[in-house]
Write a sequence for this structure.
């Protein structure tokens, strides 16, 4: 069965510092990995995805993520955090054998302090 | 959120009532999904549909029903059989049902049982 874990419920960083939101996954085949962001009482906004190819994926709003097959991780990163980045972040995984089953992590709340 | 609308934004239900949540998309996507979001649990799949007049149960379909009579519409009915319906409900769509496709989300409906 496929699953994804976000080991940190909360991440706090100072504005201007780099940020990392962690995600690890478990799938039986090749993983397809996604990051979404959610602002209060809103739907999820797509940030980026890894399907194949370059392990470093660049996405919206200056975010990027690095796929690490040996560590089964897909951490979200940004070189310089903004206060406006404060939100709930979700990692999700899909398995090639399960077309319609996207598994989400429990979410990580990022707070960027001025 | 662009391209996917959900209504109403807030919905209050009395015990024993059925309520229907609306989801409409103008993205010409074939696949549509319904998720439930509870605090600290991420998103869980209720139902999905890859094509008109066809839909499949997700992990937590009990107490819910759907229809897919038109490509652009995928309404969700929360029946009185759903024991704990208070949650945030998110509709999503993707171009097809392929696991590489990005799912795009609507703004959500917050359902509260009185």
């Amino acid at each position: 069965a496929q699953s994804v874990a976000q080991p940190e419920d909360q991440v706090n960083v100072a504005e201007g510092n780099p940020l990392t939101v962690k995600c690890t996954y478990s799938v039986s085949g090749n993983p397809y990995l996604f990051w979404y962001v959610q602002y209060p009482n809103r739907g999820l906004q797509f940030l980026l995805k890894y399907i194949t190819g370059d392990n470093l994926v660049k996405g919206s709003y200056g975010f990027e993520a690095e796929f690490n097959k040996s560590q089964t991780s897909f951490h979200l990163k940004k070189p310089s955090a903004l206060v406006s980045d404060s939100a709930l972040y979700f990692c999700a995984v899909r398995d090639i054998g399960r077309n319609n089953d996207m598994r989400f992590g429990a979410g990580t709340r990022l707070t960027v302090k001025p | 959120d662009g391209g996917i609308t959900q209504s109403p934004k807030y919905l209050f239900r009395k015990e024993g009532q059925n309520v229907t949540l609306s989801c409409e998309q103008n993205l010409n996507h074939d696949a549509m999904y319904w998720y439930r979001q509870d605090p600290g649990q991420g998103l869980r799949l209720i139902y999905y549909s890859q094509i008109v007049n066809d839909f499949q149960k997700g992990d937590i379909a009990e107490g819910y029903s759907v229809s897919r009579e038109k490509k652009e519409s995928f309404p969700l009915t929360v029946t009185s059989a759903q024991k704990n319906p208070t949650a945030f409900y998110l509709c999503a769509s993707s171009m097809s049902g392929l696991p590489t496709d990005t799912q795009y989300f609507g703004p959500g409906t917050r359902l509260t049982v009185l």
